[in-house]
Amino acid sequence: EVQLVxxxxxxxxxxxxxxxxxxxxxxxxxxxxxxxxxxAPGKGLEWVSLIYxxxxxxxxxxxxxxxxxxxxxxxNTLYLQMNSLRPEDTAIYYCAKGFYYDRSPEGAFHVWGQxxxxxxSS
Amino acid sequence: xxxxxxxxxxxxxxxxDRVTIACRASQGIGNWLAWYQQKPGxxxxxxxxxxSNLQSGVPSxxxxxxxxxxxxxxxxxxxxxxxATYYCQQANSFPWTFGQGTKVEIK
Lengths: 122, 107
Fold this sequence. Notes:
Chain A is mainly β and 122 residues long. Helices cover 0% and strands 56% of the residues of chain A. The mean pLDDT of chain A is 97.
C-alpha cells in the first residue's frame, strides 16, 4: 500500500529550527518527484518545495534560503529542514508524491500524507 | 510568479445542480493545470491533471477543460459528497502556485 506519514511538527519559537520527516511506504522516494505543501489555519494551500528524482530542488519565494528539502534514500524518507522560522510559517505541512502519466511528470500530486502541524509562536 | 485566480470564491448549490469553477492564470501555462478537492480536516485529493485528465477512481461527473490562461472544473450533477473546497494548481513554471480555493456549499 502506498502511504506517506509526516512527523516532526511542534510548537517552536520564532527564529528556531525544525525538521519534518515524511516516511514513505509502497514506493521509492528517490525514484519520484516529491513535494511539501502547507496550509495555514483556515487558509488555502501553499506550495512550498519540490525535489525531482535526479535531486534538483525548487522553493517558494517565501521559504527560499530558510527551508531545505532533502531525502534519505536508504530510509526512504523525505525531509523538510526549516530554519529561521517565522510566525507566518505556522501551518499544517503535507508531503505528497508526484503523479506520472506515461512515465512523464504531470506536475500534480496524487498521494498525500495526513499532515503535521507546525506552530511558530513565542 | 504566476498568479492563479479562482472564481467564484464560494458557491451555494443544491444536489443535482451543475457547478462550474473557473481558474485563470496570470500568464499562459499550457495545460499544466491540476484540480484538487479538499474536505475539512483532510488532505487534498487530486481530481484532474493536465487540465482534463480525470484521475482513476474519480467520478465521471467531474471534468476539466481549458488551456493557456483559462480553465474550468465542472461538476455535472452535484452529489452530497462533493461539498468541499476546490483548488487549482499550475505546474508550468516554478514556483508552482495554487488558486485561493472555491468552497462549494449546500444551498
